[in-house]
Amino acid sequence: MAKMVKVGMADLNICHSPDAITTLGLGSCVGVALYDKNTKTAGLVHVMLPDSTKVRQNQNRAKFADTGIDYLIELLEKEGAKKSSLTAKIAGGAQMFAFSSSNDMLRVGERNVEAVKDKLKKLGIRILAEDTGLNYGRTVEFYPETGDFIIKSVGKLVKTI
C-alpha cells in the first residue's frame, strides 16, 4: 500500500515510488520537488524564506531556499539519487496580501521563487514545470512513479504539471 509522506512548513522529506509526498498551505512559501526518474526517488522542501544569510536564527536548513535545496540534495544522494539526474518542479510563491508597496519584506513569495530559481540554476538542475505567483495558496502532491506534481487550490481546478 503506497503511503503519502507529509512535509510540514520549513521542512523537507523524501520518498520512493510507489509512495508520494505532499505539503499543505503553500502561500508565499515555495514547494520544491526534486526528482531522479532513474531511481524514482523524490524529495520535497517547503521553503519559507529566500536567504539564510540574512537571518540570525537559521539552524533550520529546510526553511531557506539556499540551504534547503542543498540539504534535500544531500538526502536524495544518500538514497541513491544522482545530482546530475535531478530535475525540479516548483509551486507556490503567492502574494497573499494585496500591498501595492514595493517593500521587499512584503514580496516574500516573489523573492522565494527568485531564490529557488537562482539556486537551481547554480546547481544545474532544470525546472521542468512551475505553478507560482498570483494570490492564492496551494497544496501540492508529487508522485515519483509518474513525475506528476498535482496542485490543489481552493476554488480552482486541480492542476497536474
TrEMBL record:
<comment type="similarity">
    <text>Belongs to the CheD family.</text>
</comment>
<keyword id="KW-0378">Hydrolase</keyword>
<dbReference type="GO" id="GO:0050568">
    <property type="term" value="F:protein-glutamine glutaminase activity"/>
</dbReference>
<dbReference type="InterPro" id="IPR005659">
    <property type="entry name" value="Chemorcpt_Glu_NH3ase_CheD"/>
</dbReference>
<dbReference type="GO" id="GO:0006935">
    <property type="term" value="P:chemotaxis"/>
</dbReference>
<comment type="function">
    <text>Probably deamidates glutamine residues to glutamate on methyl-accepting chemotaxis receptors (MCPs), playing an important role in chemotaxis.</text>
</comment>
<dbReference type="Pfam" id="PF03975">
    <property type="entry name" value="CheD"/>
</dbReference>
<protein>
    <recommendedName>
        <fullName>Probable chemoreceptor glutamine deamidase CheD</fullName>
        <ecNumber>3.5.1.44</ecNumber>
    </recommendedName>
</protein>
<keyword id="KW-0145">Chemotaxis</keyword>
<dbReference type="InterPro" id="IPR011324">
    <property type="entry name" value="Cytotoxic_necrot_fac-like_cat"/>
</dbReference>
<dbReference type="InterPro" id="IPR038592">
    <property type="entry name" value="CheD-like_sf"/>
</dbReference>
